[in-house]
Structure formats: C-alpha cells, structure tokens
Amino acid sequence: MALQATALAEPDTVPETSEGPARLWLRLLRSPLTLTGLVITLVFIVLAVIAPWISPYDPSAVSDTALAAPSGSHWLGTTQNGQDILSQMLYGARASMLVGLGAAVLTTVLSVLVGVTAGYVGGIGDEVLSLLANVFLVLPSLPLTIILAAYLPHSGSLGIILVITVTGWAWGARVLRAQTLSLRKRDFVEAARATGETTWRIILKDILPNQVAVIAASFLGTVIFAILTQASLAFLGLADVTQWSWGTILYWAQTGSALLTGAWWWFVPAGLAIAVLGTALSLVNFGIDEFINPRLRQAGIGTKKAQRAQVSARRPRAPRKRGPVAERPASAPFTPGSTDVILDVRHLKVDYVGGGGRTPAVSDVSFTLRRGEVLGIAGESGSGKSTLAYAITRLHKPPAEISQGQVLYTRPDGSTVDVLSLDEHELRAFRWEELSIVFQSAMHALNPILRIGAQIEDVIVAHRPAMNGQQRAARVIELLGIVGIPADRANSYPHELSGGMRQRAMIAVGLALDPEIIVMDEPTTALDVVIQRQIIEKIMELKDRLGFSVVFITHDLSLLIELSDTIAVMYGGKIVEQASADDFYRRPQHPYSRGLLASFPTLGGAKRELTGIVGSPPDLRKLPSGCSFRPRCPLAFDACADTVPPLFQIQGPGGGLSQAACLLHDPAGRAAGNSTDELATGETR
Ligand SMILES: Nc1ncnc2c1ncn2[C@@H]1O[C@H](COP(=O)(O)OP(=O)(O)OP(=O)(O)O)[C@@H](O)[C@H]1O
Ligand code: SF4
Ligand SMILES: [Mg+2]
User: Fold this and answer.
1) What is the Å distance from ligand 1's center to 353 Cα?
2) What is the rounded CA–CA span in Å between residue 481 and residue 497?
3) pLDDT at residue 78, rounded to an integer
4) Which residues line ligand 1 (CB under 6 A)?
5) From its phi and psi, is residue 67 left (phi > 0), alpha (psi between -120 and 50) or beta?
C-alpha cells in the first residue's frame, strides 16, 4: 500500500515552540528566582555533607571564651560554655537536612502509594485506603507528634523522621487521591485505557506526570515542615538534645537565656538558616511548576531565534516506505450490494442503572456494518448514539450495563469474535488492533504534558512490545505523514497544535495499528467548518486508501449524508430508520428523519424552509406508549398510541431496501386511512 505524506491546506496558525529536554533544564536554570532557590538549597546540602572537614572546632568542645560575640576566631560567636556556634551550625545542618529530606521522601512515597492507588483502583480498595488516611487525618497531629517524640527520645534523627512520616502522610494521600479520581475520568486517560495500555503504564505515564507539580510542592513543603517540627521538638527538649541540629542549638540558646543576656548570635543563625532554606525551597517550587506545565513553560518562550534553532534541531527523518506495523492489503471498495459483514450488532440493550431504576439508553438495536462501509449514525442529543458506540467498543462504564444482545466481529480470515464475551486480555488486543476509536474532543483526549509523537508511540509500545525505539519512531513519523501532519510536529505538545491538527493527531492514534474498524464519535464537532471539511476529506481519503470501515456519529446530518454509505437514525434509544444515504436523502421514510432533514439546509437543489421538529426528545424512563415519537409526530394516528412499531422493510426510491419503524409502513396503518403518501410531502428534492 503506497502511503504518502500529504500536508493539508489547514493554516498552521500555532507557532512551533517545543523544547528539547536539555533546553528545558537550561530554561529551569535561567529563571533567576528558581536559580537562586536551587543555589541556596545546594549550598546548604554541600555544607551539611562537608561539615566534618570544614568545621573549625568540635561543636561540643568547651573553651574559656564563653558567650563571645562573632569575631575572627569564632565567626558566629560562642555559647556560654565557649562552644563554637559556626561548628554547631554546620554539624546541625547535617541533622536538620537529613530529617527534612528523609521525612519528605518517606511521606511523599507513602502519600503517592496510598493516594494514587486509592484514587485509581476505586471500589473496596479505595474505601479501605481512604478510611486509613481519614483515621490518620483526624488524629491530632501536634499532640501525637509530641507523644511519639517523647517515647522515642534517643532514637535520634530516624525517630523524628518516622514521627513526621506517621503524622504527615495522610494529608498528601487525600490530595493525591482526589486528583487521581479527577484524572482517571479525563478523556486522555480513558483514551490510554482504550488503546490497551496497562494499568501501571497509565499510572506512570498519564496519572503521575500530571500530578508532579502537586507531588513536588508536597515534597518541598514536607522538607521545611520536618525541619521546623524537628526544631520545635528539640526546642521543647523532646528530641535528643545531645545531637547537634538547628533545633538543639535553639534549645541550648533558650536554656542558656541567650535572649535575656542579649547573645543574639546564639539563636539568630539557626532561625535564619531555617527561614532562608524555607524561602529557597519555595522558589524552587515555583520553578518546578513552570518546568512541569508545558503551557506555563512556554509563556516566556518566543524569540524567533530560539524557535528557529528548535526547528532546525528537529529535522524530520525520512518516512519509511512501509511501516513496521503490518498493514492490510487494501480491500475492494465498498459496494451497496456487499454482504461482507464485518460487525454484526444484534438486539443490543444498554441501560443506565441507578436512581431506583434503569434508563434504557439503547433498546434492542440491531445493525450490520460491512467491510469498507461508512455507517453514519444520526439523532438528536440524548438519543443513545454515544452509549451505542461505547457499548460496541466495550468502553461503557458503570452505571451503563449491557443487559442483552450480541456484538459479532468477523476477521478478514472469516473467523468470528463475540466481542461481549472477550476477557480483559483479549479485549485489550481486540481494541485498537481490530477496532479503534476517535474521541470527540482531541484537546481532552490527548495528554497535555506528553508530546504528540510520544502519545502515538504509547499505543505501539502497548501492542508491539517487540518493536525497538527506531522502528516505533519511524512508524510515528509515517502515521503523522498519513494524516498530513509535518513530521517535526511529533515533538509538539497538544496545546501547540491547532484544533484541526490535534484532531488529526487523534486520527493518527486511531490508525496506529491499522485497524479494520474505526468508530468516530463526533470527531469534528468542535472544529470550524473549513477544518471540519478538511478532516472529513482526509478520513474519506484514508478509508479509500486503507480500506477500513467506519461508524461515524454526528449531529450534522448534511455532513453525514455526504460521507456515509448508510445512515441509521436513532430516536429514544432505538434505530428508527436505516437506509442508504442516497435513499435517505431522497426520501426519508420516518417522520422523525423527515423532521431532522428539515432542520438542515439542503446540500444542493431547490431552497426550502427549515422547519425542524416540534417538542423535545423523550424522557427515556417514561417513554410514551406505542410509538415513542408520537407526541411530536405530525402524522400520528390512533394506532400509534397502542402499537410499538417494529422496523418495516421498504423499497427505497433508489431501488435499495430501507427500514423504518413507523406504522405508516404497516398494512394495518394504511388500513386505518393513513398512507405513506403523507411522507411523500417530505421528499427533499
Ligand atoms: N452516566 C449516565 N447515567 C445515566 N444516564 C445517562 C448517563 N449517560 C447518558 N445517560 C442517558 O443516556 C441517554 C443517551 O445518552 P448518549 O450520551 O448516548 O446520547 P447521545 O445521542 O450520544 O447524545 P449527544 O448527541 O448529546 O452526544 C441520554 O438520555 C442520557 O441522559
Ligand atoms: S408510528 Fe405513528 S407516531 Fe410513530 S412515526 Fe409513524 S406515524 Fe408517527
Ligand atoms: Mg454523544
């Protein structure tokens, strides 16, 4: 199959501004505030490490120079026992930094483990872990810290680290759980799940990176909190006061009445060190926020020179003629008479369970999709289109339940797969290999902190573990070329692309494994008409070239008629009409379809008045008796109140067979004095 990169005419309005990793670090260092914070923190860490070698005196050694103010021989003065305060500060930095970093590492690890696990797994696991966190949250942490510290007086820094970890992890866990709960419902996480990524990869690549700002803030906050807690405990005499830390310096200054005797040099350095370190960590925190969030990061980028440098640094590699993912030979083009069914949906029923009842969102829906066919699904909001799409891809989630029906997929080799009986492992292989989905909003379905290329590559990693990095990169470039995105855009973040490009990137994700069927749920709704048209043309061109089948959902009936081979119209959770697009356009067989068509401008031919449909879609839990369209139907007659119309077979104007669930097509309906001639007035051209 000849796959050539074709760039679309869509204006590339969004500047290209991605940076490489090395540049990112440089940028982090170029922020003066962050750099100041980093330098100060580093100085403290280095001083703590080399304290034994640079301290002028033994911090505990007494001398005759008691309570001496800072001088050449004692830069920070002495205590009332003549001990050198500079040496105590240097040795004290070791204990304080150890407690700060140790407690922060343990607390953060515990918070992340409990918070992210609880938020992601949900159910009973979430309840147990949340209960545990809640118990620790309601414990009064200050008295508990004091009690625990009092029972561990000689355990040194390790005791304090444990005390701070035990009393401090629950808050972070709660915050991370809430964040994870919100993230796991985001479209890009759903999309990653749908593409077959494992839970661990989703947590590590989609959930955690989006929480790094919170985790980093919590880590740095805990460092300073732990140093302060240790200082407070030491100041109160609850820590081992024979071990030098900034807190024990303050303790001895207080017991030596430094404040009363005016010996400011005894307590000011320790207090100042804690305050300066706290400020430095806050500055680092600001920088991390900007470093992690690509949007914030780019706020200051923009010199043309920098952008040119980035572009030239990322020259596209030549696309491979043939990708490492095996591609199907293009099948014969779809013909209306085809009987080569690829997807057979039989009597599917999907309910939303809750609120003391069941909402039948999809009721007894049957249809077939043939190889190479584009099946367009139309219907007003709430008619069940997305529920149907999610159910056939098994992406529905509680409270949605499939209570009845079958979804049968036929492979090119003729073997049949019962989609609703696949186990998780089989389902992961089925989705994206055989059937993929293009979600509605690309901005939400793409991970905001991962580059486009990486997101496409993730799908390949999940399904083709044997492929090496070079092969994957080549396939990414090839896929971008197929959807008309320049190869160097692989390094862009979603927000750096225009809406049309993002949507085409989603299509590239959908095509990554060369599936047989692509389900598209309103893939172009958020785009303007020009871009919409370009995307649709691209989809059609790809379909013809690659030979996949499409289930296409949209509100836009004109668009649907133009691109579909067959149209299915849903109303109140049922398919009420199914016909070839041509027959449907020439003569809709259901009054609802006629109303829908009358709500849209014609694609050509004579002008006509746009009338629309009176009333609103039905409440699915209280459907009217008989035909559910009856309260809105201008052609309703008596029998419509008693009889639920089945789908009747009708000869369409083009000679093909259509189906419509309307009693006007039932001989009994005609017998009552009504006829399909009434519908003829709705003929649209
Ligand atoms: N989580 C849910 N809980 C209960 N009912 C739901 C839920 N999600 C959808 N529904 C109901 O199911 C019905 C079908 O919804 P669905 O989203 O499938 O419609 P749709 O045709 O895709 O609409 P739209 O065109 O607005 O996307 C609606 O009446 C809706 O109220
Ligand atoms: S069955 Fe009756 S109410 Fe329903 S669409 Fe047909 S004419 Fe209208
Ligand atoms: Mg929908």
Assistant:
1) 12
2) 15
3) 94
4) 352, 359, 361, 379, 381-387, 399, 555, 620
5) left
* Listed residues: CB within 5 A of ion ligand 3: 386
Closest C-alpha to ligand 1, atom 24? 381
Report the relative pairing of strands 400-410 and 416-418 from DSSP bridges.
antiparallel
Degrees (nearest 5) of the Cα angle 462, 465, 469? 100
What is the domain partition of the chain in residue ranges? Answer: 45-58+91-296, 341-571, 574-602+611-681
Q: % helix / strand / coil in the chain, to the nearest 5?
A: 50, 10, 35
CA 654, chain centre distance (Å)? 45
Distance 381 CA to ligand 3 centre (A): 7
CA of 633 to the centre of ligand 2 (A): 6
Q: Confidence class of residue 443 from pLDDT cuts 50, 70 and 90?
A: low
- For every residue of 673-684, DSSP letters joined together read T--THHHHTT--
**Of the bound ligands, which one is closest to the alpha carbon of residue 661?**
2
Q: Is 630 in the pocket of ligand 2 (CB under 6 A)?
A: yes
563 CA to middle of ligand 3, Å? 19
Burial status of residue 6 (CB atoms within 10 A of its CB: 0-12, 13-18, 19 or more): exposed
Instruction: List own/partner pairs for 647-653 with CB under 8 A and 24 or more apart.
Output: 647/575, 647/576, 647/578, 650/589, 650/676, 652/579, 652/580, 652/582, 652/583, 652/584, 652/586, 652/587, 652/589, 653/583, 653/586, 653/587
- pLDDT band for position 40 (cuts 50, 70, 90): very high
Length of the chain, please? 685
Position of tokens 């001088």? 71
Tokens of 333: 């083009």
Q: What is the pLDDT of residue 12?
A: 44
Q: Going by CA atoms, what residue is nearest to atom 22 of ligand 1? A: 386
Which of 185, 359, 393, 524 has most ligand 1 atoms within 8 Å of CB, for mutation?
A: 359
Number of C-beta neighbours around residue 135 at 10 A: 10
Pick the CATH number of 45-58+91-296 from 3.30.450.20, 2.50.20.10, 1.10.3720.10, 2.60.120.10: 1.10.3720.10
> Does residue 400 contact residue 352 with C-beta atoms inside 8 Å?
yes
Angle among Cα 674, 675, 680 to the nearest 5 degrees reads 130
- Measured in angstroms, how far is the CA atom of residue 521 from the centroid of ligand 1? 13
Closest CA to 231 of 92, 415, 387, 385: 92
Tell whether omega for the bond before 399 is within 30 degrees of 0, i.e. cis: yes
Ligand 1: atom nearest CA of 522 is 27
Q: Which of 596, 637, 664, 676 to mutate to test the pocket of ligand 2 (most atoms within 8 A of CB)?
A: 664
Say which CATH topology domain 341-571 has: Rossmann fold (3.40.50)
Q: 645 by DSSP, 3-state: which?
A: coil
Give the residue from 163, 294, 349 showing the smallest Cα distance to 239. Answer: 163
Residue keyed to tokens 């989630």: 397
**Rounded distance from Cα 434 to ligand 1 centre (Å):** 26
Average pLDDT over residues 72-82: 92
Q: Report the separation in Å between the CA atom of 386 and the middle of ligand 1, taken as the mean of its atom positions.
A: 7
DSSP 604-621: SSS-------SS-PPPGG
Q: Which atom from ligand 2 is nearest to the alpha carbon of 640?
A: 2
pLDDT bucket at 401, cuts 50 / 70 / 90: very high
> Which atom of ligand 2 lies at the shortest distance from residue 591's CA?
5
Residues 523, 503: contact at Cβ < 8 Å?
Answer: yes
